[in-house]
């Protein structure tokens, strides 16, 4: 089964497009505290999770213990929930081979985020993995997405369309790995129509203030997932993680109309 099919199956089973972001702040309790914290988050949110997205930065900030924590969590993750490792890697192909091997074979994550700035040969080592997916940063959720990604080329296209061209090329070549894109909800409005079919990973809901209306208007049918991290892990309210996740999942479903 391809990554996109597995994700679609999970979306249908849960009725949710919520991707739960696992961004543990390395507080006073360190990795031991973070392990209990995230174990509870996962237990309480699993029925609403179309996917989980651990972000490498938060684990790396805890040093070797953080990496060990990530490995333990990945090993204990509910087997029917796809895991998207938010690593945003980018390097020459020779080195990317080892990232691909480490993430897909070693840690067995389902998908990984990549920075496409080094071009097609830099993503190639990730393209021949049956059942796996990559998400290329296309239009990120930060204001700086205007600096490169939204710039116009002489032929009228935007720079992010050069990124989607990489995915089109992989598809035309019949590569095994599914290629999707990261599109920040805060900057999604006029972008979605240009990426109709590919799976999207959409951060920016919750703490970053993204508005679901743009997704609703686009009437999408791809296996998109919408990420919420701080809005579940660190919201300043009395609800538990499960209730926060359910509320986000319901808001997302209402916006999609399905
Ligand atoms: O364009 C991007 C790409 C990645 N992210 C990551 O998603 C989460 C968002 O966290 P929130 O707390 O829900 O804002 C975080 O891991 C980012 O590094 C993004 O926000 N935008």
From TrEMBL:
Chain ranges of the Orotidine 5'-phosphate decarboxylase domain: 17-245
Catalytically driven reaction(s): orotidine 5'-phosphate + H(+) = UMP + CO2
EC category name: lyase
One BP annotation, GO: 'de novo' pyrimidine nucleobase biosynthetic process
CDD domains in alphabetical order: OMP_decarboxylase_like
Pathway: Pyrimidine metabolism; UMP biosynthesis via de novo pathway; UMP from orotate: step 2/2
SMART domains named among the record's database cross-references: OMPdecase
Known EC number: 4.1.1.23
Single Gene Ontology MF annotation: orotidine-5'-phosphate decarboxylase activity
Keywords: Decarboxylase, Lyase, Pyrimidine biosynthesis
InterPro entries found in the cross-reference section: Aldolase_TIM (IPR013785), OMPdecase_type-2 (IPR011995), OMPdeCOase_dom (IPR001754), RibuloseP-bd_barrel (IPR011060)
Family note: Belongs to the OMP decarboxylase family. Type 2 subfamily.
Family matches, as NCBIfam families: pyrF_sub2 (TIGR02127)
Name of the protein this chain belongs to: Orotidine-5'-phosphate decarboxylase
Chain's gene name: pyrF
């Amino acid at each position: 089964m391809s990554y996109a099919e597995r994700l679609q199956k999970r979306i249908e089973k849960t009725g949710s497009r919520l991707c739960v972001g696992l961004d543990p702040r390395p507080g006073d309790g360190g990795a031991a505290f973070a392990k209990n914290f995230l174990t509870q988050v996962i237990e309480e949110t699993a029925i609403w999770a179309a996917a989980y997205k651990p972000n490498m930065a938060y684990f790396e900030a805890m040093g070797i213990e953080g990496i060990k924590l990530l490995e333990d969590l990945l090993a204990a993750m509910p087997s029917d929930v796809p895991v998207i490792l938010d690593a945003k890697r980018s390097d020459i192909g020779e080195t990317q081979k080892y990232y691909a091997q480490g993430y897909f074979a070693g840690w067995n994550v389902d998908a990984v985020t990549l920075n496409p700035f080094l071009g097609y040969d830099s993503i190639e080592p990730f393209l021949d993995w049956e059942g796996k997916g990559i998400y290329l940063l296309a239009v990120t959720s930060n204001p700086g997405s205007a600096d490169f990604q939204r710039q116009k080329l002489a032929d009228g296209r935007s720079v992010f369309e050069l990124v989607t061209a990489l995915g089109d090329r992989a598809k035309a070549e019949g590569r095994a790995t599914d290629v999707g894109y990261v599109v920040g909800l805060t900057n999604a409005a006029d972008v979605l129509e240009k990426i109709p079919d590919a799976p999207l990973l959409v951060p920016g809901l919750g703490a970053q203030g993204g508005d679901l209306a743009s997704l609703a208007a686009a009437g999408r049918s791809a296996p998109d997932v919408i990420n919420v991290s701080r809005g579940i892990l660190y919201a300043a309210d009395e609800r538990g993680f499960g209730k926060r996740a359910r509320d986000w999942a319901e808001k997302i479903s209402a916006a999609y109309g399905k």
